[in-house]
Structure formats: structure tokens, C-alpha cells
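STRUCTURE:
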């Protein structure tokens, strides 16, 4: 199926933002996930499983509807796809989602602590970053638990225990900027805590 110009533009937007996330080391390897909503609200472009942020291309990205039916692409859908689609279903104003395993934020998540909003910019731009517990089997969070947290229209970022972060935005670049702020805040909070203890 030939990709229409609007879809192609959104794919290119996703590729540029994914490359930025890779370049600033928010995500290495093939982990994490990133998606963008098309202007027609019922469709989403999403990175498939096993593809790195720096390797996203018009040939491997998937186009899906909000129920997860694949409309274009033949790569394997990510296990993260259900929570991305669920957030789009419950938050009509959200048009981009970035999920990464960035190391400083994930260190707080692995320790089972929320990231303290220790800076003025974190308090004003993020507010609280809630910690969503691991799933019932001790593994990945259930999509339902992540979607439930993001039903709160004031929530723009959350931490997944022992896993990583999820940031959302009115556009994809805004979501990625927030993921950078979460990582930066996690780094600053860890160093500030060590300095105070010293
Ligand atoms: Zn993940």
C-alpha cells in the first residue's frame, strides 16, 4: 500500500525525533519505543520490535489503528504497543509518546523510588513523576496500569518501576524534550542527594 504524504511526513517527524533521542543517549540498542499520532486521530505510526531509535525508516515503521490492527508495514509489533495505543485512546490531546530506558531515570526506577523533583524547572514543567509498580509477575507493567495513570490529564511523565520512563506530549518533540528533562532531573537528584549526604 503506498504511503500517503501525511503519513510520510509523520514518519519523517518520528525518525528525526528518534534520532535526537538516540544522539542524546536516552536510548541505546533496540530498547524503548516511540510513536506519533496521525492527523486523522484514529491512526498511529510506531517503531516496531527489534529496531533501534537510530534505525527507524519508512521501510520498518508500522502504521496501526487505535485497536492495534496493522494497516501498513510487516515488522513485528512491540510489546509496548498496547500501552501507547491506550494512552492515545484516553488522552485525545496527546500526539506523541516516548518510552525509554535512560540510565539515570531507570536507576531511580530500579531502586523503587520516585524521582524527586529537586529543581525549579522540574517542579514547574513536570510536577510529580509517579512510579508505576511492576506487573503481577514481577515483569513489565501491565498496559492497563500505565493507561490508568495517564487518564489523569495533568500527567505528562511517569516512571515504570525497574524499567524506564514514559513521556507524552501534544507533539512528539515535546514528549522527547520531557524525556530529556526526566533523565536530567534523575541525574541531578542523584548527585544532589550524594552531595547532601557527604
Ligand atoms: Zn521498555
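SEQUENCE:
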Amino acid at each position: 500500500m503506498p504511503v500517503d504524504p501525511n503519513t510520510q511526513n509523520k514518519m519523517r517527524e518520528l525518525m528525526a525525533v528518534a534520532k535526537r533521542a538516540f544522539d542524546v543517549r536516552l536510548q541505546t540498542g533496540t530498547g524503548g519505543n516511540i510513536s506519533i499520532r496521525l492527523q486523522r486521530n484514529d491512526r498511529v505510526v510506531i517503531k516496531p520490535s527489534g529496531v533501534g531509535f537510530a534505525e527507524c525508516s519508512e521501510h520498518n515503521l508500522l502504521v496501526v489503528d487505535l485497536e492495534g490492527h496493522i494497516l501498513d508495514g510487516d515488522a513485528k509489533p512491540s510489546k509496548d504497543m498496547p500501552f501507547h495505543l491506550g494512552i492515545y485512546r484516553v488522552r485525545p490531546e496527546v500526539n506523541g509518546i516516548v518510552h525509554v530506558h535512560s540510565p539515570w531515570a531507570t536507576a531511580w526506577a530500579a531502586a523503587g523510588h520516585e524521582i524527586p523533583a529537586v529543581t525549579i524547572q522540574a517542579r514547574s514543567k513536570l510536577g510529580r513523576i509517579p512510579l508505576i509498580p511492576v506487573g503481577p509477575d514481577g515483569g513489565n507493567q501491565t498496559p492497563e496500569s500505565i493507561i490508568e495513570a495517564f487518564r489523569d490529564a495533568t500527567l505528562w511523565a511517569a516512571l515504570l518501576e525497574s524499567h524506564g520512563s514514559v513521556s507524552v506530549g501534544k507533539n512528539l518533540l515535546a514528549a522527547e524534550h520531557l524525556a530529556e528533562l526526566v533523565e536530567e532531573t534523575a541525574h541531578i537528584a542523584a548527585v544532589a542527594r550524594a552531595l547532601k549526604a557527604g
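REMARK: Strands lie at 33-37, 43-46, 62-65, 70-72, 96-100, 131-132, 157-160, 164-169.
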